[in-house]
């Protein structure tokens, strides 16, 4: 969070002040809990230990203990349970400190709201003398509020830091987290019921054993995702090394593709797929001879035909990467044109997959707005005007307009992708460089 804008830091500070206010008054005695201070200390210790275990060995967060506290304790006491675990994380850098403060404040607000809703609905009395399924109502409402507060707070900081749409980001975060938080809520409710039972807190701790197994499974999923990211990084680095002209181009095309996808209202899963498609769209250059990619001057027709094989090479290279999904279609078809004059198959109109039409616009936009050794970057406005001029023949007009709206809201700051030599090289046309080719 070192690059977080000042307005986002102010937002974090405001949420932190709110969280501190919610911790007051200090926990008061609760008739149904013999020693509330002891209960808060034990739950806080369990949460802190669980967070360390989850971060080091597993994945995710230790929500069952937090939700058990929301079901057992009054709001200030329940919120206090989250503080030690969120603050006692490793690292002394400023960014780590800011993340810890933000996480603590976020959880305090969410747990306080969940405990308040649960108590208002009579949930604490229902936990003392559990009456199923009545006890599930207040607990379910508390879980929904807990998840919603986390989603809203996350959407707020993302909107200020990354200019992400608030409503869409909130819906996405809420949808992704609701199912796992609901499972954690059931475990927290079981802990609360057993805690209040004659068997006491020791029996409540047994609930954490099956949660450990579920976290282990979840950790395998995260390790697989990490392997996916490492695979993509390795492929992109290989392309950057082979073709120095486009260093950084892949990441920017991925970002522009993601902006278009969000503007089109696609779900988060497809947005991520399109980001990967943009990042890997030129991976087929690994199959093109380096001398052609770095050749000065125009290419011969035979050399150009070799360059135009790179989408098919990319499709073959990524054949065994199952998690890419429709991104492979974008890699194969991102040089097709709406009028049928593109390559490799000369598809036209709706025959071209939507993902490929998105990446084609993102690719051409970054190619025009990035400095190359043979020409200067064009201004964003000029590049957008060129895209609009070619819309309908080369590019999908809907994708061009989506990019225009996204840029008007978020802006664009391209970086130089190649060092400029002392003597300018002759300009090559876009097709010879393996790009869609926006011809003035």
UniProtKB/TrEMBL annotation:
Disordered: annotated segments: 416-440
GO molecular function: hydrolase activity
Pfam families membership: HD_5 (PF13487)
Enzyme class label: hydrolase
Keywords: Hydrolase, Membrane, Transmembrane, Transmembrane helix
SUPFAM superfamilies reported for this sequence: HD-domain/PDEase-like
Keyword flag Aminoacyl-tRNA synthetase: no
The HD domain, residue ranges: 246-368
UniProt keyword Transmembrane, yes or no: yes
Transmembrane residue ranges: 6-26, 62-89, 101-121, 141-161, 173-195, 201-219
CDD domains from the UniProt entry: HDc
SMART domains in alphabetical order: HDc
Entry superkingdom: Bacteria
Domain HD-GYP: 224-419
Entry's EC annotation: 3.1.4.-
NCBIfam families the UniProt entry points to: HDIG (TIGR00277)
Stated name of the protein: HD-GYP domain-containing protein
Organism: Streptomyces griseosporeus
């Amino acid at each position: 969070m070192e690059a977080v804008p000042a307005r986002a830091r102010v937002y974090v500070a405001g949420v932190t002040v709110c969280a501190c206010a919610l911790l007051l008054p200090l926990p008061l005695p609760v008739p149904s809990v013999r020693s509330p201070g002891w209960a808060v200390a034990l739950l806080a210790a369990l949460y802190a230990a669980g967070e360390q275990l989850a971060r080091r060995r597993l994945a995710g967060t230790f929500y069952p203990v937090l939700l058990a506290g929301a079901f057992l304790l009054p709001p200030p006491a329940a919120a206090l349970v989250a503080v030690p675990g969120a603050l006692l994380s490793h690292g002394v850098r400023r960014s780590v400190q800011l993340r810890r403060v933000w996480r603590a404040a976020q959880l305090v607000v969410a747990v306080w709201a969940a405990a308040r809703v649960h108590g208002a609905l009579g949930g604490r009395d229902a936990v003392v003398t559990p009456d199923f399924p009545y006890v599930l109502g207040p607990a379910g409402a508390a879980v929904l509020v807990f998840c919603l507060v986390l989603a809203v707070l996350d959407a707020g900081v993302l909107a200020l830091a990354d200019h992400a749409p608030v409503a869409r980001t909130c819906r996405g975060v809420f949808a992704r987290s609701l199912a796992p938080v609901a499972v954690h809520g059931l475990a927290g409710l079981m802990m609360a019921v057993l805690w209040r039972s004659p068997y006491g807190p020791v029996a409540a701790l047994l609930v954490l054993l099956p949660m450990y197994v579920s976290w282990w499974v979840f950790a395998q999923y995260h390790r697989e995702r990490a392997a996916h990211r490492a695979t993509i990084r390795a492929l992109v680095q290989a392309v950057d090394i082979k073709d120095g002209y486009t260093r950084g181009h892949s990441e920017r095309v991925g970002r522009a593709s993601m902006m278009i996808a969000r503007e089109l209202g696609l779900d988060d899963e497809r947005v991520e797929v399109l980001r990967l498609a943009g990042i890997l769209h030129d991976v087929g250059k690994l199959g093109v001879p380096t001398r052609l990619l770095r050749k000065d001057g125009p290419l011969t027709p035979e050399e150009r035909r070799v360059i135009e094989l790179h989408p098919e090479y990319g499709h073959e290279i990524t054949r065994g990467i199952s998690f890419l999904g429709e991104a492979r279609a974008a890699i194969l078809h991102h040089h097709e044109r709406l009028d049928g004059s593109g390559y490799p198959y000369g598809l036209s109109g709706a025959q071209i997959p939507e993902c490929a039409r998105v990446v084609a616009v993102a690719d051409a936009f970054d190619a025009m707005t990035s400095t190359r050794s043979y020409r200067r970057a064009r201004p964003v406005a000029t590049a957008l005007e060129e895209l609009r001029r070619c819309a309908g023949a080369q590019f999908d007009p809907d994708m061009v307009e989506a990019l225009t709206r996204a840029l008007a809201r978020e802006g664009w700051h391209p970086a130089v992708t190649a060092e400029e030599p002392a003597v300018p090289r002759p300009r090559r046309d876009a097709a010879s460089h393996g790009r869609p080719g926006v011809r003035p």
